[in-house]
Design goal:
This protein has 152 residues and is an alpha+beta fold. The chain has one domain. The protein contains 5 helices and 3 strands, in the order E-E-H-H-H-H-H-E. Helix 4 packs antiparallel against helix 5.
Amino acid sequence: MNKMYLVLGDWSDDGHGKFEKILVEVNKTVEEVQNAYKASCKLTGIAFDHDEDYTETNRGWKEAEKYRIAVEYEDSNLSGEVLEILTKFGCPLKMLEYYNEDACQENYVKLWFWFINLSLPYLEYEIVADDTPNINGYWSKNLNASFGYGLF
């Protein structure tokens, strides 16, 4: 198993600046997962990002937005176009129902890895706790100090 992070949100801090790193163990390499994401975008015509056109559909911006998942601020809804495509490719209806009822990180990650599995069969993953301790900060009883504040 390989440990890697699935980073959700605005990791580059060029918008709202909120992001979360989800630590997962995966039975494939990072590069295999990355390539499978791109392949699944091309296969389905939908994407979980708006940075590149991995779908290779050359849709205009307005049209392309209908085929993207959770790329706009506080908008995690699945469009009718996306629901139709995911259903066509065999996405379990329960998964789509759970996502629509509660588009939380856990349901998003499940949908994302299902999507990757379209192009990377036998993909297995598990969300694991990142229990690496912090030396300082975060209300530590032993060293609740802020270091390097002036570096940023």
